[in-house]
Design brief:
Number of helices: 0
Oligomer: single chain
Radius of gyration: 13 Å
Number of strands: 11
Order of helices and strands: EEEEEEEEEEE
Length: 112
């Protein structure tokens, strides 16, 4: 059974870089696409980006200039970095494996 767990700071100051890690157990990160999504309060789920089995990355056009996704195959983890955050980046952030398996989500609040 594949499990995903997001981790990172729950509070980030505006203008800083948010960094989240998704740790995957029960499945390799080199064989399938992995995704980052977020859901701001009162809004729908927003796709942020993805990394495929070869390590190629794909980003939402609206976030591309501020987003970076990378991975550490030795730890079976992939990370999200979002730079120059504002309070509008406050959301629950989720990682997903193949859009089938999901982490429980982690709340990130950006303080002004």
């Amino acid at each position: 059974q594949v499990q995903l767990q997001e981790s990172g700071p729950g509070l980030v100051n505006a203008s800083q870089t948010l960094s989240l890690t998704c740790t995957v157990s029960g499945g390799s990160i080199t064989t399938i696409h992995y995704y980052w999504f977020r859901q701001p309060p009162g809004k729908g789920l927003e796709w942020m980006g993805a990394i495929d089995g070869s390590g190629s990355t794909y980003y939402s056009p609206s976030l591309k200039s501020r987003t970076s996704i990378s991975r550490d195959t030795s730890k079976n983890q992939f990370t999200l970095q979002l730079s120059s955050v504002t309070p509008e980046d406050t959301a629950v952030y989720y990682c997903s494996r193949g859009l089938r398996d999901w982490g429980q989500g982690t709340q990130v609040t950006v303080s002004s």
